[in-house]
Design goal:
heterodimer, A: 315 residues, two-stranded antiparallel sheet, 70% helix, 1% strand, B: 507 residues, Rossmann fold, 6-stranded mixed β-sheet, globular
Chain lengths: 315, 507
Amino acid sequence: MVDLIYQLFPYAIAFTVPLLITSLGGLYSERSGVINIGLEGLMLMGMFVGALIISRTESIYPGTAIWIGLLAAMLFGAVFALLHAFACVTLNANQVISGIAINMIAAAVTVYLARLISGSGNIQIIRGLSRQTIPILSDIPILGRLLFTQTYATTWFVLLILVVATFLLYKTRFGLRLRACGEHPHAADSAGVNVYRMRYMAVIISGACAGLGGATFIVTISGEFNGTAAGLGFLALAALIFGQWKPWGILGAAFFFGFASTVANVSQVVPMLAQIPGIYLKTFPYVVTLAALVLSSKYSLAPKAIGEPYDKGKR
Amino acid sequence: MDYVVEMRNIRKSFPGIIACDNIDFQVKKGEIHALLGENGAGKSTLMNILFGLYQPDAGSIYLRGKKVNIVNPNVANELGIGMVHQHFKLVHNFTVTENIILGLEPTRALMIDTRSASAQIKELSQKYGLNVDPDAKISDVSVGMQQRVEILKMLYRDAEILIFDEPTAVLTPQEVRELMKIMRNLIDEGKTIILITHKLREIMAIADRSTVIRWGKVVGTVNVADTTEEKLAEMMVGRKVLFELNKKEAHPKEEILRIEKLSVAGSGGAKGLKNFSLGVRCGEIVGLAGVDGNGQAELVGAIIGLRKILSGKIILHDRDVSTLSIRERISTGMAHIPEDRHKHGLILDYSVQENLVLKNYYLEPFSHKGLLNWDYIYDHAERVIKDFDVRAGEGAEASARSLSGGNQQKAIVGREFDGNPDLLIAVQPTRGLDVGAIEYIHKRLLEQRDQGKAVLLVSLELDEILDLSDRIAVIFNGELVGLVNAAETDENEIGLMMAGGKRGATA
């Protein structure tokens, strides 16, 4: 049992990280008052760009190709998210519909381009990110084996972003204004905060995070772009709600999904889990999410002005 | 004479209406200047122009003798103009401090310096006698405190000219007195106050001068010391206003509503209703007096069917209606003017005609075989608009949101009176309305009574209760303290009962 957990942990963490960073992206957007259902599409964009750039550069710059790819994915995610920001903030469009449009465009564009490029529609990278064991910390009893062995550099980078996000959101000017835009944009506006600019920034950041999430999934888990984000973006969205729009709540929710999915994925090869029909394990995280969302909906801490285009003149 | 604010020939029109028609307006430094007018007269528009929320079509603004161009509220802030809006602009889950510093946050090493900000706010709060806790969350503090936070927001930005938009509309009488004291403190510290209001009594109590606006035009500016409430009212409405209601003797008949030992659970910190019994007869107005939050909302909610009851009976027309649906109760002859016209009275984004049939759209002739009969609904709306003098820019098709508060209320009153209900439950029917509209609604309520209908009037305004009611029930802590004939009581006695004192107890 204990050994099983030791074995599963690195995989669970690896699976958690793309979810976590994408969900954090959603956090920025939604805390500013813009629903971002487009996370799935933004992630897919990140996967495509990441895989493409890495596959083209890894023979030239073997060491740094992965990092160039991750950076490019962030950049493209941000640019792609501009579309969502333009529709939701400038044009006052319905945010849910714009998000769905983002998902559809991403699916179509990436698959089309991938087919043009590779013929098969899949883009493979030769070398993913390698796992590293952190020297001293991994000697700590229990925790050392759980957290500090076989880790990816991206994991630490994303955790750093989590800490920075918490700091930004709760301790700085930027965060106070961002949250005000999501709760009561008229209050923010009358205090001299440019609601449109804040929301643009938030949506762009969310695109960058989701793009990074997609590319991270490529370099740590899948190793290839195959035309789908497999619902990870929606899972990130669920983690955002389950985590009650709070950074550390999101960490907990994302880890829960990551762990549960890992258990489901490996269940066939672990004798202890093989007894349980796979369908129960596979649906487990989703069923729990549904139950949790139903139970917590009464006390939902969703930003108050979420989903409402900002209209200066409205009384 | 130098003025701190001077607005010259201000003109602003909206589709279908000229809100400001060449208005001249001057304010002296250090005075409380009341801007008086009926709802929709243009006073809020004028102040929104001064605060930079609207741009005037023509005219110019001078501050301390210098011409200024106020293109947005930020410019107004920089020029030392602050405004407390009627609907507060506060973030509910932020602290008082966070709300005040938003947009002008002091920082230290990238972080917001909450500690020094909160100390500064505490100091300001003490200086002006505001008594605000800088670390409290907005959602936890009273409406009066929220208003003081809005005042602090202006002071924190060093505003010299403070605009208050209908500041007393949401306050209890005690809080109003408190606010007036604060305003005097502000004047003593050299600030200038512009007070938008339609309450004459407040102007008499606190303002130095008053400019009266009617239909977008200035009627005149007067020294408050040289005028009377009657004269101001006449200027505002354009005709003599009857402060004395022409109230005939009541001829009550059989009892139509009987509440027996009703108990209702309280919500949100309120105390609920305990063992409450009361009867209302045809041809009388029963007033329910009490301080806000003593069970009025629970009682009304239970009668109309918005709240579940714990025990007891609600008998209407000899029939217990306590388990009936709201629609069934309405069809038994009950009508309701709700306390909060935005929450329970209107669907703001619907048109006036749609709002006027909310309760009976499904009946012939408003609909026929499941389809709405728009021609009839339109004609019906036009008739109600005419009968009840609802002023809407685009008539029946105007959205309810575009109407001023007074006209929204008139539309609700029109809808509720329209079905000729046997029992009318009117909760704060004149809240936030101007003298003309109040007079009108009071007249209609008395008419209703004289036609042999029953009215249950719930109000926080003691004057209103005393003026209109035939009998007065006083509620305290969810219980009936007493039931007295209006002719045999006065403000003092009711006031004491509202604080829980039984009748006959020594004062």
